[in-house]
User: Which sequence fits this backbone?
């Protein structure tokens, strides 16, 4: 059995690792992968957004399943093209991927389906947006319509910041064409959590909850990043919320998409803001979260592949297809000094092997091989993910492991998981 994983981040290393341990013993390929995936798969010299290159490889090599990690190839229609060849793909179609690709589309779905979310207004004209801003509620949030690689969302605490955010998005085009259209939405208070659900077109299987840490510095200070660490489960998602999230978020979304002739297959990520037991949707993503994947997958006991196949083949997911470990997980991202601003690449990384043990695994993200060495090749360089019998134990294991790893300028947050501790004390 051959499996192709598309992408090159920590998420894709985690997906490749989990699938490579499957009892079906698949042969793993990554396009393009990184220095971590190279140890367990064949890395292909094809970029994740090179749709023609990926389709050509798939035609020639006939993988039994293609798992698409990032949003860009999904929004470019990779699934549609591979399915047209009769191949199996884990990941939504181009039409369904609009749930992430277009913030205006996903807001429209949420509003039509009655899904709890922040009230918002969309603009294509900067003048209209600036005029609306004069009386808009403060604080509020400006969101570029299209894909902006995790940027494109600006929280505005004052009217001056709102005016500036509109200019940056629509006039300076800081996020490129993603800012041709934008939303101004109400600011929501509460605590965030991520819920990922596997969907086979009909059935919904929610995976373990998790919580990301988006800001660069401890205590959620500094600019937003792609995510500096995560923990799972997230205790803010209490047992009584699960049926509500399933019905009011995922089922309503599927039903509304279906009304518009769109079937969703793959994983749907709901970024939630939970306040007074109401799960408001901040955003949908059409893919696994990074770094949420690095804490959710290690908690799965046994095989993941049957669940991915059930989604790819359609209408075959069952509630008991996945088994969960009774353990908590914490992952800490090690980043290049300067990230999310500019940073240097090519720093030699030492200590990865020493960091790994029965409870801890290192997922590589921005790394590559030069000769025999692993060097930094991105902002988020690697992720140390650890299991533990409870949250404090998982935190302890992650931080004692990460101490072994070193590279010039390495930086990581010291408080990952701390927000969850208030529920355990
Ligand atoms: P998004 O990419 O839409 O998830 O936004 C990135 C981050 O901005 C989220 O994780 C939240 O921390 C924050 N955010 C987005 N929308 C809102 C909102 N309406 N109210 C408060 N915070 C928000
Ligand atoms: N961790 C946030 C995301 O994957 O979008």
Assistant:
């Amino acid at each position: 059995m051959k499996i192709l994983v598309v992408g090159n981040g920590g998420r894709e290393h985690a997906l490749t690792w989990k699938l490579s341990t499957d009892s079906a013993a698949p042969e793993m390929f990554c396009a393009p992968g990184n220095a971590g995936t190279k140890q367990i798969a064949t890395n292909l010299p094809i970029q994740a957004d090179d749709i023609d290159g990926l389709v050509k490889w798939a035609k020639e090599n006939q993988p039994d399943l293609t798992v698409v990690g990032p949003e860009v190839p999904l929004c470019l229609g990779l699934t549609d093209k591979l399915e047209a060849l009769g191949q199996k793909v884990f990941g939504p179609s181009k039409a369904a991927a609009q749930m992430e690709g277009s913030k205006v589309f996903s807001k429209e779905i949420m509003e039509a389906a009655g899904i709890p979310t922040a009230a918002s207004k969309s603009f294509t004209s900067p003048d209209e947006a600036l005029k609306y801003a004069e009386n808009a509620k403060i604080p509020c949030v400006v969101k570029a319509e299209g894909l902006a690689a995790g940027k494109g969302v600006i929280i505005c605490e004052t009217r001056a910041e709102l005016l500036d955010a509109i200019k940056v998005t629509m006039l300076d085009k800081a996020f490129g064409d993603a800012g041709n259209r934008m939303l101004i939405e109400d600011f929501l208070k509460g605590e965030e959590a991520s819920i990922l659900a596997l969907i086979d077109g009909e059935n919904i299987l929610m995976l373990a909850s998790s919580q990301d840490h988006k800001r660069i510095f401890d205590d959620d200070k500094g600019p937003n990043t792609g995510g500096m660490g995560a923990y799972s489960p997230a205790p803010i998602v209490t047992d009584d919320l699960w049926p509500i999230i399933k019905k009011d978020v995922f089922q309503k979304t599927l039903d509304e998409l279906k009304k518009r002739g769109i079937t969703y297959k793959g994983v749907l990520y709901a970024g939630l803001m939970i306040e007074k037991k109401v799960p408001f949707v901040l955003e949908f993503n059409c893919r696994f979260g990074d770094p949420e994947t690095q804490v959710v997958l290690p908690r799965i006991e046994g095989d993941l592949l049957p669940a991915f196949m059930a989604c790819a083949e359609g209408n075959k997911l069952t509630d008991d297809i996945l088994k969960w470990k009774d353990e908590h997980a914490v992952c800490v991202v090690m980043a290049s000094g300067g990230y999310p601003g500019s940073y240097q690449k090519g720093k030699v990384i030492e200590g990865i092997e020493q960091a790994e043990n029965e409870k801890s695994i290192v997922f590589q993200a921005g790394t590559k091989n030069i000769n025999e060495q692993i060097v930094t090749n991105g902002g988020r360089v690697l992720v140390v993910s650890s299991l533990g019998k409870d949250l404090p134990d998982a935190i302890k294991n992650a931080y004692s492991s990460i101490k072994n790893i070193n590279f010039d300028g390495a930086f990581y947050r010291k408080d990952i998981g701390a927000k969850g501790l208030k529920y355990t004390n």
